[in-house]
Protein backbone atom coordinates (compact mmCIF):
# COMPACT_ATOMS: atom_id res chain seq x y z
CA UNK A 1 0.00 0.00 0.00
CA UNK A 2 1.11 3.53 -0.79
CA UNK A 3 0.89 5.48 2.49
CA UNK A 4 0.15 8.62 0.48
CA UNK A 5 -3.38 7.20 0.07
CA UNK A 6 -4.06 7.94 3.75
CA UNK A 7 -5.78 11.35 3.89
CA UNK A 8 -3.93 14.21 5.61
CA UNK A 9 -0.78 12.21 6.33
CA UNK A 10 2.35 14.36 6.33
CA UNK A 11 6.16 14.06 6.36
CA UNK A 12 6.25 11.07 4.00
CA UNK A 13 9.36 12.49 2.34
CA UNK A 14 11.31 12.21 5.63
CA UNK A 15 11.92 8.48 5.14
CA UNK A 16 10.94 8.00 8.80
CA UNK A 17 8.74 5.27 10.21
CA UNK A 18 5.11 6.34 10.62
CA UNK A 19 3.36 6.49 13.98
CA UNK A 20 -0.09 5.46 15.18
CA UNK A 21 -0.47 6.84 18.70
CA UNK A 22 -3.01 8.11 21.18
CA UNK A 23 -4.97 6.99 24.22
CA UNK A 24 -6.36 3.49 24.52
CA UNK A 25 -9.90 4.83 24.80
CA UNK A 26 -11.52 8.21 24.27
CA UNK A 27 -12.34 9.20 27.86
CA UNK A 28 -13.48 12.70 26.98
CA UNK A 29 -12.78 15.57 24.60
CA UNK A 30 -10.31 17.47 26.77
CA UNK A 31 -7.97 14.52 27.38
CA UNK A 32 -8.07 13.46 23.74
CA UNK A 33 -7.34 16.97 22.48
CA UNK A 34 -4.47 17.43 24.92
CA UNK A 35 -2.85 14.19 23.85
CA UNK A 36 -3.35 14.89 20.13
CA UNK A 37 -1.93 18.40 20.43
CA UNK A 38 1.22 17.20 22.17
CA UNK A 39 1.84 14.27 19.82
CA UNK A 40 1.28 16.43 16.74
CA UNK A 41 3.80 18.95 18.06
CA UNK A 42 6.40 16.22 18.65
CA UNK A 43 5.88 14.44 15.34
CA UNK A 44 6.00 17.70 13.37
CA UNK A 45 9.27 18.55 15.10
CA UNK A 46 10.74 15.15 14.23
CA UNK A 47 9.11 14.87 10.77
CA UNK A 48 7.27 11.66 11.62
CA UNK A 49 4.12 10.79 9.63
CA UNK A 50 1.40 10.63 12.28
CA UNK A 51 -2.04 9.03 12.71
CA UNK A 52 -4.05 9.78 15.87
CA UNK A 53 -5.37 6.61 17.52
CA UNK A 54 -8.30 6.32 19.90
CA UNK A 55 -10.90 3.62 20.60
CA UNK A 56 -14.45 4.94 20.44
CA UNK A 57 -15.55 1.96 22.52
CA UNK A 58 -13.90 -0.99 24.25
CA UNK A 59 -15.61 -4.31 23.62
CA UNK A 60 -12.87 -6.74 24.69
CA UNK A 61 -12.84 -6.30 28.47
CA UNK A 62 -12.05 -8.82 31.19
CA UNK A 63 -14.89 -7.78 33.52
CA UNK A 64 -18.42 -6.58 32.97
CA UNK A 65 -17.78 -3.51 35.15
CA UNK A 66 -14.78 -2.37 33.08
CA UNK A 67 -14.94 0.98 31.27
CA UNK A 68 -16.30 0.58 27.74
CA UNK A 69 -16.65 4.17 26.54
CA UNK A 70 -18.42 7.52 26.78
CA UNK A 71 -20.92 6.74 24.03
CA UNK A 72 -20.19 5.70 20.47
CA UNK A 73 -21.34 8.80 18.60
CA UNK A 74 -19.86 11.17 21.17
CA UNK A 75 -16.44 9.49 20.98
CA UNK A 76 -16.47 9.28 17.18
CA UNK A 77 -17.32 12.99 16.92
CA UNK A 78 -14.29 13.72 19.10
CA UNK A 79 -12.14 11.63 16.75
CA UNK A 80 -13.49 13.56 13.77
CA UNK A 81 -12.88 16.89 15.52
CA UNK A 82 -9.27 15.94 16.24
CA UNK A 83 -8.73 15.01 12.60
CA UNK A 84 -10.10 18.37 11.46
CA UNK A 85 -8.48 20.57 14.10
CA UNK A 86 -4.97 19.13 13.79
CA UNK A 87 -5.24 18.07 10.13
CA UNK A 88 -4.13 14.52 10.85
CA UNK A 89 -5.58 11.13 9.89
CA UNK A 90 -7.33 9.10 12.57
CA UNK A 91 -7.76 5.41 13.36
CA UNK A 92 -10.19 3.55 15.59
CA UNK A 93 -10.94 -0.14 16.14
CA UNK A 94 -14.24 -1.77 15.29
CA UNK A 95 -15.80 -4.89 16.79
CA UNK A 96 -18.84 -5.82 14.74
CA UNK A 97 -20.07 -5.44 11.19
CA UNK A 98 -22.35 -2.49 11.99
CA UNK A 99 -19.41 -0.56 13.46
CA UNK A 100 -17.65 -0.44 10.08
CA UNK A 101 -20.11 1.82 8.28
CA UNK A 102 -20.70 4.01 11.34
CA UNK A 103 -17.03 4.57 12.20
CA UNK A 104 -16.05 5.10 8.55
CA UNK A 105 -18.05 8.35 8.59
CA UNK A 106 -15.72 9.80 11.24
CA UNK A 107 -12.22 8.29 10.85
CA UNK A 108 -9.71 7.54 8.09
CA UNK A 109 -8.50 4.07 9.10
CA UNK A 110 -10.52 1.16 10.49
CA UNK A 111 -8.62 -1.18 12.76
CA UNK A 112 -9.51 -4.84 13.26
CA UNK A 113 -8.59 -6.02 16.78
CA UNK A 114 -6.25 -8.98 17.10
CA UNK A 115 -8.89 -11.25 18.64
CA UNK A 116 -11.19 -10.58 15.67
CA UNK A 117 -8.84 -10.57 12.68
CA UNK A 118 -10.13 -13.95 11.47
CA UNK A 119 -13.76 -12.78 11.52
CA UNK A 120 -14.38 -12.70 7.78
CA UNK A 121 -17.61 -10.68 7.90
CA UNK A 122 -15.93 -7.97 9.98
CA UNK A 123 -12.83 -7.74 7.79
CA UNK A 124 -14.92 -7.62 4.62
CA UNK A 125 -17.27 -4.98 6.05
CA UNK A 126 -14.27 -2.78 6.90
CA UNK A 127 -12.76 -3.31 3.46
CA UNK A 128 -15.99 -2.41 1.64
CA UNK A 129 -16.09 1.03 3.26
CA UNK A 130 -13.12 1.94 1.08
CA UNK A 131 -11.15 3.10 4.11
CA UNK A 132 -7.63 1.90 4.88
CA UNK A 133 -7.85 -1.24 7.02
CA UNK A 134 -5.30 -1.95 9.77
CA UNK A 135 -5.26 -5.66 10.64
CA UNK A 136 -3.81 -6.48 14.04
CA UNK A 137 -2.15 -9.90 14.00
CA UNK A 138 -3.90 -12.35 16.25
CA UNK A 139 -1.87 -13.38 19.29
CA UNK A 140 -2.63 -16.95 18.23
CA UNK A 141 -1.56 -16.56 14.58
CA UNK A 142 1.69 -17.03 12.72
CA UNK A 143 3.10 -14.22 10.62
CA UNK A 144 2.49 -16.31 7.50
CA UNK A 145 -1.21 -16.69 8.32
CA UNK A 146 -1.73 -12.93 8.04
CA UNK A 147 -1.55 -13.18 4.25
CA UNK A 148 -5.07 -14.65 4.32
CA UNK A 149 -6.44 -11.71 6.32
CA UNK A 150 -4.79 -9.29 3.89
CA UNK A 151 -6.23 -11.18 0.93
CA UNK A 152 -9.76 -10.88 2.37
CA UNK A 153 -9.39 -7.10 2.22
CA UNK A 154 -7.90 -7.16 -1.27
CA UNK A 155 -10.50 -9.62 -2.58
CA UNK A 156 -13.16 -7.19 -1.35
CA UNK A 157 -11.83 -4.61 -3.79
CA UNK A 158 -9.65 -2.66 -1.35
CA UNK A 159 -5.85 -2.59 -1.59
CA UNK A 160 -5.42 -0.12 1.27
CA UNK A 161 -4.32 -2.49 4.01
CA UNK A 162 -1.80 -2.45 6.85
CA UNK A 163 -0.66 -5.12 9.32
CA UNK A 164 0.18 -4.50 12.98
CA UNK A 165 2.06 -7.07 15.06
CA UNK A 166 1.10 -6.95 18.74
CA UNK A 167 3.03 -9.98 19.95
CA UNK A 168 2.29 -13.67 20.23
CA UNK A 169 0.97 -15.34 23.35
CA UNK A 170 3.26 -17.81 25.10
CA UNK A 171 1.53 -19.27 28.13
CA UNK A 172 -1.46 -17.64 29.76
CA UNK A 173 0.01 -14.31 30.86
CA UNK A 174 2.86 -13.36 28.58
CA UNK A 175 3.34 -11.82 25.14
CA UNK A 176 6.49 -12.22 23.04
CA UNK A 177 7.44 -10.38 19.85
CA UNK A 178 8.93 -12.71 17.24
CA UNK A 179 10.90 -10.29 15.09
CA UNK A 180 11.35 -12.97 12.42
CA UNK A 181 7.72 -12.32 11.50
CA UNK A 182 8.23 -8.67 10.56
CA UNK A 183 9.90 -9.24 7.15
CA UNK A 184 7.44 -12.07 6.48
CA UNK A 185 4.42 -9.80 6.95
CA UNK A 186 6.07 -6.98 5.01
CA UNK A 187 5.70 -9.19 1.92
CA UNK A 188 1.92 -8.78 2.28
CA UNK A 189 1.51 -5.18 3.47
CA UNK A 190 3.31 -2.34 5.31
CA UNK A 191 3.92 -3.68 8.80
CA UNK A 192 3.63 -1.83 12.11
CA UNK A 193 4.90 -2.93 15.53
CA UNK A 194 2.62 -2.32 18.50
CA UNK A 195 5.12 -1.55 21.26
CA UNK A 196 2.62 -1.23 24.10
CA UNK A 197 0.17 -4.12 23.66
CA UNK A 198 3.14 -6.41 22.99
CA UNK A 199 4.04 -5.86 26.63
CA UNK A 200 0.63 -6.70 28.05
CA UNK A 201 0.21 -9.34 30.72
CA UNK A 202 -3.33 -10.60 30.11
CA UNK A 203 -5.47 -12.99 32.14
CA UNK A 204 -4.59 -11.58 35.55
CA UNK A 205 -6.59 -12.99 38.45
CA UNK A 206 -7.81 -9.47 39.27
CA UNK A 207 -9.50 -9.19 35.88
CA UNK A 208 -7.34 -6.15 35.04
CA UNK A 209 -4.68 -6.62 32.37
CA UNK A 210 -1.11 -6.00 33.52
CA UNK A 211 1.93 -4.87 31.57
CA UNK A 212 5.64 -4.03 31.49
CA UNK A 213 5.88 -0.44 30.24
CA UNK A 214 9.51 -0.23 31.35
CA UNK A 215 10.34 -2.39 28.31
CA UNK A 216 8.59 -0.19 25.73
CA UNK A 217 11.84 1.41 24.59
CA UNK A 218 13.54 -2.00 24.31
CA UNK A 219 10.82 -3.37 22.04
CA UNK A 220 10.66 -0.14 20.02
CA UNK A 221 14.41 0.03 19.40
CA UNK A 222 14.47 -3.58 18.24
CA UNK A 223 11.54 -2.98 15.91
CA UNK A 224 13.15 0.02 14.24
CA UNK A 225 16.43 -1.89 13.90
CA UNK A 226 14.60 -4.75 12.18
CA UNK A 227 13.02 -2.27 9.78
CA UNK A 228 9.33 -2.00 10.68
CA UNK A 229 7.38 0.47 8.58
CA UNK A 230 5.52 1.94 11.52
CA UNK A 231 5.16 2.06 15.29
CA UNK A 232 1.89 1.80 17.21
CA UNK A 233 1.68 2.91 20.82
CA UNK A 234 -0.84 4.02 23.38
CA UNK A 235 -0.04 7.01 25.53
CA UNK A 236 -1.70 9.03 28.30
CA UNK A 237 -0.83 11.98 30.51
CA UNK A 238 -1.30 9.80 33.58
CA UNK A 239 -1.45 6.07 32.74
CA UNK A 240 -2.23 5.19 36.37
CA UNK A 241 -5.59 6.92 36.07
CA UNK A 242 -6.37 5.76 32.52
CA UNK A 243 -9.68 3.94 32.25
CA UNK A 244 -8.30 1.25 29.92
CA UNK A 245 -4.88 -0.42 29.47
CA UNK A 246 -3.08 1.96 31.82
CA UNK A 247 -0.68 -0.78 32.91
CA UNK A 248 1.09 -0.94 29.56
CA UNK A 249 0.73 2.62 28.22
CA UNK A 250 3.61 5.06 27.75
CA UNK A 251 3.47 8.21 29.82
CA UNK A 252 3.12 11.11 27.39
CA UNK A 253 6.00 13.01 29.01
CA UNK A 254 8.36 10.25 27.82
CA UNK A 255 7.22 10.23 24.19
CA UNK A 256 9.52 12.86 22.69
CA UNK A 257 12.64 11.28 24.14
CA UNK A 258 11.63 7.85 22.86
CA UNK A 259 10.77 9.07 19.36
CA UNK A 260 13.98 11.11 19.14
CA UNK A 261 15.98 7.95 19.82
CA UNK A 262 13.95 5.93 17.31
CA UNK A 263 14.44 8.56 14.60
CA UNK A 264 18.20 8.40 15.20
CA UNK A 265 18.17 4.61 14.89
CA UNK A 266 16.06 4.83 11.72
CA UNK A 267 18.51 7.32 10.21
CA UNK A 268 21.33 4.85 10.80
CA UNK A 269 19.34 1.92 9.40
CA UNK A 270 18.49 3.92 6.26
CA UNK A 271 22.20 4.02 5.42
CA UNK A 272 22.30 0.28 4.85
From TrEMBL:
Enzymatic reactions: D-arabinose 5-phosphate + phosphoenolpyruvate + H2O = 3-deoxy-alpha-D-manno-2-octulosonate-8-phosphate + phosphate
Gene3D superfamilies, alphabetized: Aldolase class I
InterPro entries xrefs: Aldolase_TIM, DAHP1/KDSA, KDO8P_synthase
Keywords: Cytoplasm, Transferase
Keyword Transcription regulation on entry: no
GO molecular function, one term: 3-deoxy-8-phosphooctulonate synthase activity
DAHP synthetase I/KDSA domain location: 13-267
Pfam families per the UniProt record, alphabetical: DAHP_synth_1
EC number annotated for this UniProt entry: 2.5.1.55
Pathway entry: Bacterial outer membrane biogenesis; lipopolysaccharide biosynthesis; Carbohydrate biosynthesis; 3-deoxy-D-manno-octulosonate biosynthesis; 3-deoxy-D-manno-octulosonate from D-ribulose 5-phosphate: step 2/3
Top-rank lineage group of the source organism: Bacteria
Family: Belongs to the KdsA family.
The name this protein goes by in its record: 3-deoxy-8-phosphooctulonate synthase
UniProt source species: Lutimonas vermicola
Lineage, broadest ranks: Bacteria, Pseudomonadati, Bacteroidota, Flavobacteriia, Flavobacteriales
